[in-house]
């Protein structure tokens, strides 16, 4: 059949028509008046209703009914939602609807139903429809061809940039931020005077977006890209103040928030982060906002640095967000991406066209009126003869013809003379007529000059823009900053000495070194580090706030924190559990904590696992770490990481096993490997034997090796009794394991001045001097260190180092 159409062709045609309909007729604003069809119809319907800014408000339902009944055949909720947004001071930079009633809130509360609210056009909206009755714009039939509606409004306001716009069409979207009216007018005046000015010249006036909610906008390269290419991204931030309270306490006050952000959701986000301990130092959070403005209050703990909390708010909450600018608008029924200059240029061209069409209309009306007045002036000058002709005529038509023939008048002039009232014959009326005629001649001359002289036309545009600025411009609300300089936490925190303690049960804290004082040899070591019953300090690191803290787990993962990120605690505080800081998996725990200032490729980490594997890797492989951690060493399913140490080529390694075997070899025997490598064999284990400790020592050390068994036996042995072997051997006897001693629990290097601390399975802690444990040979079972109850075991031990710079709790 001749009218057969393939489905492919029909789909292409239908989808293209649908796409164009959505782009032109729904989602993308017109470059001239900056309005989408629904907003344009709302304003025109109110104009037709006479619902101006100086009239009484009308029910919103009345306006919505007119819009959907006459011009916009869609759902009433869509129209009312558009009206509501036009009346919200936090959505529009300059309101186009003056609302009365509940129009929603910045917390996301919905507006009242349209039967309860009332609206009228704002005073600024009147400037959109000025001169619409003077044939300034084209009209088109409405949806049912019964009425006419404007295709664009003859606006004096550069609304596309003033209030911005956002919309998603088919295959494209627009997102134009609002701007300041005064700045836009200044830029338009510059463009009027200098058509060759650049975007950079215009940006001397248009500093950047001006959001109704205020805040900060960082006008860096992203804004320049947006204004020069039509696409770019800027950072926007809320405004935060620090308020002093009584007794040295401080509060952080949020007074302005980023554009289009729901305030209540922001408060909920902050509360969740405080509960999750991602933001520390906030003791109370409350919303004290009222009709005067936004006020979200966060009370801080004493000693908390407010700038650190503010930085966390910007980092983890929408208080800092990105605004993607995409300046897309409909130009001549086609979507087009605009620069700042082209957007302003199109508006100026629209104003020129409106003024020209308005002037032509006014000129035609003025000439028609002057034509009539000229006839009346002739009649008044010859009034006696005019009366004679009229009285001598049998019919009005005869009178009209007689006047036309006698005074060479047109039909319109003759009819005007016949319609003239007798009171116009007075001298006063005669003078008024002459005055009106003279004034009309001046107006006609003025109108012709506008049409004939481009400079005069430019002057009219300039005068109207200047008047618009004087009447409607308001101060800028958003502060423009040159670049986004984020707060560097480390610049706010002094790089002072601190102590990091990690307990056997996983509690960690940071304490300032000032909490301890130097003590002479022979003191009690580190006092005041209380960990609770059944726990003791596993790692005790003296470091500084700016160093990196590396935390290695039994599953071979590594987590990285800055030392200052560890919560600070007093000397007697228990600390927080490490699981609150790290996303640990089930049955995963931290085995080693190391602090480093840098990740030099000449530094090496030595890893030792339960199955006897060892690995040496360069520290620079561990410099970059995700928040979820990285694989520090490749692990088999039946293996666990037991220890990590920072080593050099001059170190020796001693691995000890459960069944009392040990092997000593040089670090040089372990070649450097990649981060994901599993390592090489450090010791050949017998049967079900496992490595329980890894001791690293310099070759000239005076330390001895302290070995402890699960049943409470222990001994110390001189290092020279362990001969250096090749890596991967079966090792030599380190401890005589018997049913009485139980398997070896571990081994550590000790000095005679150190103390030994043991933790038993029934939560008892025993401290003793190393000197109390005699030094014996390798193949011995040692002495009883602690008497255990039946079924009791030693579950952990460590040394308390005693040295010239040891510390004691301040009294």
UniProtKB/TrEMBL annotation:
Gene3D superfamilies: 3.30.1360.40, DNA gyrase/topoisomerase IV, subunit A, C-terminal, Topoisomerase II, domain 5, Topoisomerase, domain 3
UniProt entry tagged with the keyword Ligase: no
EC number: 5.6.2.2
Keyword Cytoplasm listed: yes
Keyword field: ATP-binding, Cytoplasm, DNA-binding, Isomerase, Nucleotide-binding, Topoisomerase
A Pfam family matched in the record: DNA_topoisoIV
Enzyme class (EC, first level): isomerase
Family, similarity comment: Belongs to the type II topoisomerase GyrA/ParC subunit family.
Name of the protein described by the UniProt record: DNA gyrase subunit A
UniProt organism field: Desulfovibrio subterraneus
GN (gene name): gyrA
